[in-house]
Amino acid sequence: MTIEPADRVDQVPPSGIRRFFELAEEMDDIISLGVGEPDFSAPWAAREAAIASLEQGKTSYTANRGKRELRELIAEDVDDRYDLDYDADEEILVTAGASEALDLAFRALLNPGDTVAVVQPAYVSYVPGAIFAGCDVVDVTTRAEDEFKLTAEVLRESGAADADALVYCYPNNPTGATMTGEELEPVAAFAREHDLLVFADEIYSELSYEHEHTSIASLPGMRERTVVFNGFSKAYAMTGLRLGYALAPPEAIAAMNRVHQYSMLSAPTTAQYAAIEALETCGDEVEEMCAQYDRRRNFVLSRFEEMGLSCFPAAGAFYAFPECPGEDADEFAEALLEEQQVAVVPGTAFGEGGAGHLRVSYATGLGELKEAMARIETFIS
Amino acid sequence: MDSRGEILELLRENARYSVEDIARLSDTSEDDVEAAIADLESAGIVRGYQAVLDWGAVDEDDQPVRASVELNVTLDRETSYADIADRIAKFPQVRSLRLISGDYDFDMVVEGDSMSEVSHFISDKVAPIPEVTQTVTHYVMESYKEQGIEFGDGHDDDRLSISP
């Protein structure tokens, strides 16, 4: 016999980023502005705590929901930062990256045949996650003229009113767009009016440069219908340690934990020790990394302006999302890679909503960033 | 942070950033950057710009000998720490001089072409100063980090070239 993939797996097209990755991997000496993770390493104190935990032989499972000490620190942290009140025992689940938490939410909180409204352009996992859970997807495509912010108008026009759940990410990957508390209010009102479950991916919450991040769960009537996803990958530069968490009311966390306890058992133990240390002592390093990203953001946006590349002032994460000066962003990105050895990701890798744009990551040292900008300038002139 | 503070941070990070780049990085104009730097210099906040060297990477013959020296002094009614520091700091061999808390008074870094040059400097020039009661000299054997810059090999960027 031949082993065939299941239908729901077959239904998910191969990652659009994959082909481009293979192209880039074949070339030597490229400067990549195509990376979706920090160029920093995790703060040394966090790494050292991980090493110490290994030296002490702490290599067993933890509680399904994660170490209690870590959940308490997370509860304190989200309360301090975003005014979110979640109970460490009942309302927090520590997962293997925010990605696992999202997958759990799709599988544990939605039924096959339910509809998920996905705000586009989007991080690559949302649509497949929904499909793997047997859900239908409706695209909610944000507009360049709104600087890729989610508006009630776009929600209405896309038919999101009939969906069961809404999933979005702000600060956004791939656009770098952010939403203020005020801008979230009509989104929250829409969710309440149409009784939508909201999956809010806030993994970039600490990387908001123009205003304080607001969690939609802190708005009136939203906590009960929201699952917040966050983690240590971006702010603490711990992507490879795979540690995230979900915040939600007790019944949602209990359901997600039921899947988690059978599929993952518990999030990586070593990473949990690193995360405890990160929350306890690494605030200054996070601030310093944020300051560095903000400077590079200023730099990239200034350079784009100087070379006449139209780009809205992205205010979060570590991405700028300029308009592609060529007809076709895929072709442009390919030619830029071949002729100038600079990799950027065409917006369509993040769904049709990204068409005509390029995702430029500034999670790269300033020296390389300067050189890459000079090459892009040469390429377009 | 105000823009002057931000510019100062950038200079501390890399004093060779061009005015143009500092303006881009701090989202200010080049004129404002020029003015802020002039202010920082004339206010005596920024006292100089120097390269950070890993002497271990330089030819052995060209490597200076450096020593960290503990100095104890005695004060009297007419002589303050600043007076003593002023006398000592004038010697070009003295690279840094700080008054510190703890078991001794001054922490001094001295540089010379050879160990004997440094030793003679301490015994002939520093120890005889009337207020200096004791010197303890520690020769620097290896330097791993200076001015916040690590001298290790660092590590290659092993991230995937493209990731979502």
Notable characteristics:
heterodimer; A: 381 residues; alpha/beta; Aspartate Aminotransferase, domain 1; Aspartate Aminotransferase, domain 2; 2 domains; seven-stranded mixed beta sheet; three-stranded antiparallel beta sheet; 13 helices; 42% helix; B: 164 residues; alpha+beta; Arc Repressor Mutant, subunit A; Alpha-Beta Plaits; four-stranded antiparallel beta sheet; two-stranded antiparallel ribbon; 21% strand
Layout of helices and strands:
The complex is a heterodimer of chains A (about 375) and B (about 160).
Chain A: H1 7-10, H2 16-25, E1 31-32, H3 44-55, H4 68-82, E2 92-95, H5 97-109, E3 115-120, H6 126-132, E4 136-141, H7 152-158, E5 165-169, H8 181-193, E6 197-201, E7 226-231, E8 244-247, H9 250-263, H10 269-281, H11 283-306, E9 319-320, H12 329-340, E10 342-343, E11 345-346, E12 358-361, H13 366-380
Parallel strand pairs in A: 1-10, 3-4, 3-5, 5-6, 6-7
Antiparallel strand pairs in A: 2-8, 7-8, 9-12, 11-12
Chain B: H1 3-13, H2 19-26, H3 30-42, E1 65-73, H4 81-89, E2 94-99, E3 106-112, H5 115-126, E4 132-139, E5 145-146, E6 149-150
How would you describe this structure to a colleague?
The complex is a heterodimer of chains A (about 375) and B (about 160). Chain A is about 40% helix and about 15% strand. Chain A has helices at about 5-10, 15-25, 45-55, 70-80, 95-110, 125-130, 150-160, 180-195, 250-265, 270-280, 285-305, 330-340, 365-380; strands at about 30, 90-95, 115-120, 135-140, 165-170, 195-200, 225-230, 245, 320, 340-345, 345, 360. In chain A, strand 5, helix 8 and strand 6 (about 195-200) form a beta-alpha-beta unit. The model of chain A has no long low-confidence stretch (mean pLDDT about 95). Helix content of chain B is about 30%, strand content about 20%. Chain B has helices at about 5-15, 20-25, 30-40, 80-90, 115-125, and strands at about 65-75, 95-100, 105-110, 130-140, 145, 150. The mean pLDDT of chain B is about 95. The chains are: A alpha/beta (about 375), B alpha+beta (about 160).
